[in-house]
Amino acid sequence: MEDKQISQTQLCALLWAGLMAPAAELLPAVTLPIAGRGAWLSALAALPVLLLLGWGLGRLGLRHGGLAGAIRWGLGPVLGRLALLLYFIWGELLLALRLRLCAQRLIASGERDGSLWFFLPAAALLVLWMARGKLSAFARAGQVFLAVLLTAAGAVLLLSLPQVRGEHLLPLWWGDALPVLRSTVPLLGVLGYGVFAAFLLGDTEPSPRRRRDWALWAGGGCLLLGAEQAVVIGNLGPELARRLNSPFFALAKSVGVEGAFQRVESIIAALWTFADLSLLGGLAFALWKAAKQVFPRAKQKPTVTAILIPGAVLGIAAFPEGVMADAFGRETALLGNLMMGLALPLLVLAVCWGRGMFRHSPHFVYKSAQKTEDMVAEEQSEKKTEKTEKND
To answer: H helices within the chain, ranges in order?
Structure first.
């Protein structure tokens, strides 16, 4: 029985819930070296790119059963399969990295009272259980995860506002505009994790308000990322926030309410497991969709099992130390996400647009009609020959 379709709202909830994991770890640390105190504007500067890419991939994905189908249609059977293989390899690496970082955060939330050999396989088994089920059930869970994450993030940011210092954020002049625009590059690398959500577009219900809804989701997400960076920079200062590996979780250490609680960083770090599960589950479902385009007979449960087991092994073998995982996530992962989440989708959009224009050109229409007439004439000739042979 086919899985029930999900709504665009559910897919967007999954997307942004998953993106909150790398965003909390990397922003504004990766944008500060380029934009300085203006790094908090990088998310708003990246909004036009995010809107156009989302609209383009949404249109193609709905037409061709997701990004995997659009790649096969646009690039052809050979190049399309090669591109999907690249996505599969890159997705497997990201799966291993995110499993390692999720386990690392769980260890840190328990004051390092735990083992990587316990937390990483446990996280992998939980993701495997979700990915072997229905996408509709996972999408509903993603909506709950996003609500919890937004509540926790909102509490941390609101409680940190009294400590924000205006001199850490302002003044900004026209000379800061170019660095802010350049800082959108690493930010788009962070958001590049979200390209795998486009593989699930074939399972979304069509909506006449698709473009408007995506504009609201993208705008709201960029506003939240901008607010998070502004509060972190205003609270910790540009220099300190730049040196920290996870500025948002460092900010949570200073949050407290007199008479209620003083330190909530462990609770926030544990709650961020919901973001990891959203991202990891989305990756597993996306890689299954990619595998199904290459191997049409692939079944969901065996495929996701074959995806997650190597990912868990690679997460331990490739990143035995947390420093290695942090460095890979801050440098190589962002560069790869720019290639696979921005450059390659733009190439696919350009090729598909070109093919669509060519298909609607008068020359193509004339050639297609002439080819059809020739085929009909050939079929009629073959039928006449067969009839003559029977009469003889």
So the answer is: 8-26, 32-35, 42-45, 47-64, 67-109, 116-131, 135-160, 177-182, 184-191, 210-236, 238-243, 247-252, 265-271, 273-294, 300-318, 322-327, 333-338, 344-359, 362-391
CA dist., res. 102 & res. 94, Å (int): 12
Given a contact cutoff of 8 angstroms between Cβ atoms, the answer to whether 307 and 98 are in contact is no
Q: What is the pLDDT of residue 376?
A: 45
C-beta of residue 209 within 8 angstroms of C-beta of residue 296: no
Contacts of 67 (CB under 8 A, 6+ apart): 57, 60, 61, 195, 198, 199, 201, 345, 348
For tokens 């390092």, the residue is 112
Residue 76 has pLDDT above 70, yes or no: yes
Pairwise CA distance, residues 145 & 165, whole Å: 32
Cα-based angle 284, 48, 21 (whole degrees, multiple of 5): 35
| Percent of the chain at pLDDT exceeding 90 | 63
Q: CA 343 to CA 49: how far, in whole Å? A: 12
Residues 100 and 245: their CA atoms lie apart, in Å, by: 15
Q: Which two tokens stand for residue 55?
A: 């609209």
pTM of the complete model:
0.88
156 contacts 255 by C-beta, under 8 angstroms: yes
The per-residue pLDDT for 305 is 95
* 325 to 25, 93, 123, 182, 278: CA distances (angstroms): 12, 11, 16, 25, 19
Give yes or no for a contact between 257 and 273, defined as CB atoms under 8 angstroms apart.
no
Determine the pLDDT at residue 30: 95
How would residue 27 be classed by pLDDT, with cut points 50, 70 and 90? very high
- Using CA atoms, how far apart are residues 156 and 376, in angstroms rounded to an integer? 70
